[in-house]
Amino acid sequence: MKFLIAALVLICGSVSAQTYQAGDLTITDAFSYPTTGRSGAGYFTLTNDGAADALLDVEADYPKVMLHKSMMKDGVMTMEHQMRVVVPPQGEVEFAPGGYHVMFMGLKEGWGVGDDIKATLIFEKSGSLEVTFKVIERP
Predict the structure, then answer these.
(1) Which 3-state string (H, E, C) describes 10-29?
(2) Which residue of 22, 25, 80, 101 has the fewest C-beta atoms within 10 A of its own C-beta?
(3) Which residues pair with 130 in a beta bridge?
(4) How many domains is the chain partitioned into structurally?
(5) pTM, two decimal places
(6) pLDDT tens by residue, 78-107
(7) Which residue range is the domain that position 59 belongs to?
(8) CATH number of the domain that residue 17 is part of
């Protein structure tokens, strides 16, 4: 239990404390993990203090950026492209490993701890919001 608590403290302390706001939507804890491959993922918490909205797209300076959802199908973990992610009224959507995430594809070089990955989230009602994903050490 001590190790779990220590790991959570390290993760939470490592993630940028930056908060982003667009209308009634708030983005917190935007982070990514280091990668040496040609793709990486972005994670964050999306909180809605108003009426329903939807995340429609993400733009960034990479060849391909998509919204994905990881899910288990027939005992195999798969990723499925999401055309939109609904944010319920007065609700929260977690973009986290094993679930929703932003997929950055076609990286020319890997990301290292401390790198900043800039992207723009595009919402149906709340417009565009620039976010920086901080690359942190894997737990």
Answers:
(1) HHHHHCCCCEEEECCEEEEE
(2) 80
(3) 120
(4) 1
(5) 0.85
(6) 999 999 999 999 999 999 999 999 999 999
(7) 2-135
(8) 2.60.40.1890
